[in-house]
């Protein structure tokens, strides 16, 4: 896989001195779904707006498919589809004309068959002659997606696509996003629903205070979440893990007074009984035992609160 | 040039016009008829002729200018302000288009609408008075240039405006008085000498004078001055728009 979007040291400060982006670096692989998680005001929308050309960066560079978004903005922007967070649509125009307009605006020749296909996939075909103002909120959001897809983007930004959307529609949208990804479109979605990131993303990025705090494969994160840690506190510090305990793959705590054992909660046998027997047999005296499980939520909260401090 | 984008913006804007075609068509017909009833029949019967032209015919170029200028401004200012207001401007800013293409689309559509209304007024006026156009090419040139230049001004107002009040402010407080005091309904030779001089600072005087010359061969100021004035005005609007595009003023944060 190759990098389709490359962001390096991107900064954005506003006139009042507020730094919305503090040197963001991010590489996005072609064909992946990256979920950007972050609290309100983290800089998610600013990041997207800057890449798409709605806001101008203070410094730093962004390339899309190798095209710089400033010097080669035509080539770069032609590759990008944007579904904004707010439902911004011309209320008096019909669905079909609004979507046709988007395609034309991006310089693409007429292709009615493609637009029909997009509208059908998004269950909008029956509403094609309706004025936008007659549609429900969920339908309007689909129109935004249809507009973004109308010019066949290689990279699609979905800014909080399911904010304020009911559960049923949210599931439908996830389905649409998965199908898009199968067709080879790279997708970057922002959300504050961790569940959404878990359901869809290949990689998860956490952004807070204008900085990317973490970008990791979702499977790695999930593995961390599925694992639990058992901490065995010792009365006397030790310098190395005794050889007799090697098979348990233990980690020695920083103070030398605890042993950390990672196990899979879902496994049939966790190996705790054997471990505790072996610890005792090795002549170590226990002072306390504790377990902890980290979730994506925990990781997220830790990262974000650490950033605020 | 992304001509497909220009055509798309143009068509999208024209669709707004066609949605309200009856209104777009009826209102100039009605207002022109009213002007003729009031100025032509009631007042005009006492004025008789101005510079050898019947008063009813004399006011036709001014009436057309009045509508074309106000329509050009309001169409173009609304055209670009509305996407800002409802938020759809995001799409324009993120599309692979440059500002020239955006202006061509929006101003082109606004000028077309203004031109359409100008033609409708001319046709309506024809029902009330006999009009012969001495210099048809010059008439078309003045008409088109006026439509385009005031649509450019409207575009600037639309970008500048932060709310609907501001959108109305410039047309209401500056443009309408300038048009009414610019000799739409009278020849400036009818004014006291002091006002004749003051009036020459009103740019609209030059437009109406030139436009009237194209119709009847009579003018308040030499026609060359009129052409120069409209060329300068168009150039000024283009320069301001060029600056807006370079800086992203009121468009990009």
Largest interface: A-B, 34 and 27 residues
CATH superfamily of the largest domain in chain A, please? Answer: P-loop containing nucleotide triphosphate hydrolases
Work out the count of structural domains of chain A. 2
Computed over alpha carbons, the radius of gyration of chain B is 19 Å
Number of helices of chain B: 10
The radius of gyration over CA of chain A amounts to: 25 Å
The structural class of chain A is: alpha/beta
What's the architecture of the largest domain in chain A, going by CATH? 3-Layer(aba) Sandwich
Q: Biggest β-sheet of chain A, characterized?
A: 6 strands, mixed
Number of strands of chain A: 14
Strand count, sense and barrel status of the largest sheet of chain B are: 2 strands, antiparallel
The overall pLDDT of chain B, averaged over residues, is 90
Keywords (chain A): ATP-binding, Nucleotide-binding, Transport
Protein name (chain A): ABC-2 type transport system ATP-binding protein
InterPro entries (chain A): AAA+_ATPase, ABC_transporter-like_ATP-bd, ABC_transporter-like_CS, ABC_transporter_ATP-binding, P-loop_NTPase
GO molecular function (chain A): ATP binding; ATP hydrolysis activity
Keywords:
heterodimer; A: 309 residues; Rossmann fold; 2 domains; six-stranded mixed beta sheet; 10 helices; B: mainly alpha; 79% helix; globular
Describe the structure.
- The complex is a heterodimer of chains A (309) and B (253).
- By secondary structure, chain A is α/β, with parallel strands linked by helices.
- Chain A folds into two domains: 3-216, 3-Layer(aba) Sandwich (Rossmann fold); 223-299, Alpha-Beta Plaits (2-Layer Sandwich), CATH 3.30.70.
- Chain A is built from ten helices and 14 strands.
- Chain A has a six-stranded mixed β-sheet with strand order 6-7-8-3-9-10, sandwiched between helices. Chain A has a four-stranded antiparallel β-sheet with strand order 2-1-4-5. Chain A has a four-stranded antiparallel β-sheet with strand order 12-13-11-14.
- In chain A, helix 3 (95-105) packs parallel to helix 5 (137-149).
- The longest helix of chain A has 16 residues, at 167-182.
- Chain A is elongated.
- The mean pLDDT of chain A is 88.
- With 253 residues, chain B is mostly helical.
- Chain B has one domain.
- Chain B is 79% helix and 2% strand.
- Chain B has ten helices and two strands; from the N terminus they run H-H-E-E-H-H-H-H-H-H-H-H.
- A two-stranded antiparallel ribbon of chain B has the order 1-2.
- In chain B, strand 1 and strand 2 (53-54) form a beta hairpin.
- Chain B is globular and about 60 Å long.
- Chain B starts with a helix and ends in a 6-residue tail after the last helix.
- Classes of the chains: A alpha/beta (309), B mainly alpha (253).
